[in-house]
Amino acid sequence: MKLTINGKVHEFEVEAEMPLLWVLRDELGYTGTKFGCGIAQCGACTVHVDGLPARSCSTAIGDVDGSEITTIECLGTPDKLAPIQEAWVEHQVAQCGYCQSGQIMSAAALLDSIPSPTDEEIDAVMSGNLCRCGTYPRIRAAIKTAAAKMEG
Ligand code: FES
Question: How far is the CA of 97 from the centre of ligand 1 (A)?
């Protein structure tokens, strides 16, 4: 298999049925992406596959061979956060934090497709990412702040 992950080409041998999440975390060490439910219901494992959000726990590696994968590790760095991450910090979105890398990846994909989303558009996209701490109002506010930063 061959994947481009965060701009770097990786070649490896695994079973075609292995979930992308396993490859990212266990084979390649990209542990920013989290295991949540394991059945594509909670969104904690969200990454981008060829620019679109995907649940990595339920994406077979054989189905994405040759694709470009983006994980949370690629959005920004501690010294230079991406606008979406800056907004997340400003609004103190994270509580326990477990769902948050998936939330941010879904939010980043949303802003790629809709640069200035309405509340309804945010809710429609982000409702697929569950947060047991109930950070939804902060997520919505942070997405609006990020959208304004990116427009500016
Ligand atoms: Fe705790 Fe979302 S911040 S589950």
Answer: 5
